[in-house]
Amino acid sequence: MNRTIVSSKSVRKVLLELAAILLPAAMLWAAGEGRVEKTFDTTREPRISLTNLKGIVLVRGWDRAQVHVIYMVVSPRLEVDSEFLPNTGPAEKVHFDTHLLDATIPSDQQVADYTLDVPAGASLEIRNPRGKILVQGMQADASLQSVSGDISIRDYSGHLLVRTVAGDIEIIHPAGNVEADSVTGNLHFVSPATTRLHGSTTSGHILFEGDLSERGDYILSDYSGDVDIVCPASASYELSAKTLKGKVFNTMPMTRRRESASSLGTSNSLLGTHNTGKATIELTSFSGNIRIRPQE
Amino acid sequence: MEESRPNPFPQCARFESELEAYLEGETRPFITSHSRDCPACSTLHADLQAIRQAARELPLEEPSPAVWSNLHARLEAEGAFATAACTQFEGALEAYMEGEARPIVATHARDCRPCAALLADLQAIRKAARELPLEEPSRLVWANVRARLEAEGAFGTPVRGWRQILAWRPLPHAVALGVLATLVILGSLLTMPSNEMQRCETPEAASRSPAVAQIASVIPAGEDGALARVVSDLDSSFRANEASMAPDLKATYEKSLVSLDGSIRECLDSLQHEPRNTLAHDYLLTAYTRKAEVLSSALESVGR
To answer: Using one digit for the tens of pLDDT, what is the confidence trace for B171-201?
Structure first.
């Protein structure tokens, strides 16, 4: 019996000692130990890559030849490595990499949030499998990928390659070529000034809002989701809309033409010209509906 | 010989600049995406794949003994075979290139044309190397370096710096690369007329693997069988590795795969009723390709 009492006391003592050590550490951590802020010089057009696990990645373009980064890791068992090349002088390549120091860390603690201000001419390669990616005000090429996170891009004039598995993709005011793909995520394009836009999803919804560029080429493809095009009455385009099992609803005035040897009926296929047909729109769906209507 | 001119189409120029690295096994997503959009580049891509495949299948031919003896005589006449002085030159060359004083090198190079050429080449390479921009090796290189070092027991403690990239597991990565390569080949094959296709991939051949047989039994005979096999193999790898995936990530992939499986089934049903329905066929190929991409992405994330 005595032995048991002694043992319990020992355990309690050890626990108290542990608490005395860990509590200040935890308080320090909570007070911002996981937050890091850095600024460093780069070229005007550096290549910036970032590999994260989970969390929010926000990238903003600015007119300085510098990268300013703030990142915050939720757990001390998570670490961010940063690499700058070359080792001296303005960096031409910058890489951030979040990784686990302990493989048993729970999923909800695998979070690192990043905010980066980078030269507007920087090219980006960002992978954030389980978190959001937000990018704005950039001019060079970008490859942005997530698995379950949403991706939102605003005012981007470079070539965009955007991919998710389940996250939604929103692209506002793009001016360069756009390729956006998802499996179950929705695609939303707003006021693109681009001349080439390809969007594809399997079961998400596609919404395109805005005017069309002259000689613009817009290809949107869905499998089971609906495709909505909302553009001003002044837009000028050639349209090809086909859905195998859904229907095409059009409320824009069109000069229709018939496709030879098409097996599709008039309710699920529409070919024609609106105004003078300066842009080209190709819309396809397997079982979703396609709607084309004017902006109000 | 025709002088090369800059390509007036920026996307095609980029395609050309990345193609070599892609063919050497580097990950270049732009190549496949651009090939889908540009018929000219797609054809070039398919041609190069076909040439590479044909070159691999060529028999090894040994030149006749007369060729070797002529070659030897010619090289001997040009002083290509090392003399004792050449051996001395070679022995001193490394130190000379590192800045040490080795008078034999300069002296011998004045008298021996092959050694002079070697010295000039090394100096030119050194000069060019100094002028090269700093290029980061591809992820594949890092992954291979990492795998090799790990195999040699170089890492006793957790590794920092580039760890995420370096920690790519060789198996999923190899699978992913294999898939991409297979998709490229399939892309070329699928553009062939179906009668040529059937020469390459008969239904009997496709049904050798039980997993393929299961899928091939419900799809039209011909080109889709090969793609179905790729997807089936990937699916098996995914199932074998899914236990080590993060649960939330796994759930996302599973949901997407269910969606894609649904679309594959629906397309197959449509094609059974209307075998010439090109839209259904296009969607079927897209669904298979996308499923392969999703599985490939999932395999890359295994263990992360």
So the answer is: 444 555 555 555 555 554 444 434 333 333 3
Q: Which residues of A55-84 are buried (b: 16+ CB within 10 A; e: fewer)?
A: bbbbbbbbeebbbebebbbbbbebbbbbbb
Contact residues on chain A for B253, CB-CB shorter than 8 A: 147, 165
Per-residue pLDDT, averaged over A135-146, amounts to 95
Banded pLDDT at B22 (limits 50, 70, 90): confident
Local confidence band at A251 (pLDDT 50, 70, 90 cut-offs): very high
Q: Out of A107, A129, A202, whose CB is closest to B260?
A: A202
DSSP sequence for A228-260: EEEE-TT--EEEEEEESSS-EEE-S--EE-PPT
A198 interfaces chain B, CB cutoff of 8 Å:
yes
> What are the two backbone dihedrals, phi and then psi, of residue B29, each rounded to the nearest 5 degrees?
-60, -25
Task: Return all residues near B105 (Cβ < 8 A) that are at least 6 apart.
Answer: B89, B92, B93, B96, B119
Residues B193, B195, B198, B200, CA torsion sign: negative
The amino acid at residue B231 is V
Select from A86, A130, A263 the Cβ nearest to the Cβ of B277.
A263
Helix-helix angle B39-57:B10-23, to 10 degrees: 20
**Is the distance from CB of B53 to CB of B23 less than 8 angstroms?**
no
Q: How far apart are CA A271 and CA A263, in angstroms?
A: 13
Residues contacting residue B165 through CB under 8 Å, at least 6 positions apart: A51, A97, B139, B142, B143
CA–CA distance, B69 with B97 (Å, rounded to integer): 35
- Residue numbers in A near B270 (CB within 8 A): 244
CA distance linking residue A112 with residue A94, whole number of Å: 18
Chain B positions touching A83 (Cβ under 8 A) are 161-162
Assigned token pair, B149: 């070092």
Q: Is A263 on the interface with B (CB under 8 A)?
A: yes
Q: How confident is the model over B152-170, as pLDDT tens digits?
A: 666 544 433 333 333 334 4
> Rounded to an integer, what distance in angstroms lies between the CA atom of residue A98 and that of residue B160?
10
Q: CA-nearest residue of chain B to A288?
A: B263
Q: Give the pLDDT score at B210.
A: 44
Would you tell me how many other CB atoms lie within 10 Å of the CB of residue A204?
A: 27
Rounded-to-integer distance, Cα A66 and Cα A281, Å: 40
pLDDT for B137-148, tens place per residue? 655 566 667 666
Q: Across the interface, do B279 and A244 touch by the CB < 8 Å criterion?
A: yes
Q: CA B102, CA B105: separation in Å to the nearest integer?
A: 6
Is the ipTM reported for this complex over the cut 0.95? no
From the CB of residue A235, how many other CB atoms can be counted at a distance below 10 Å?
22
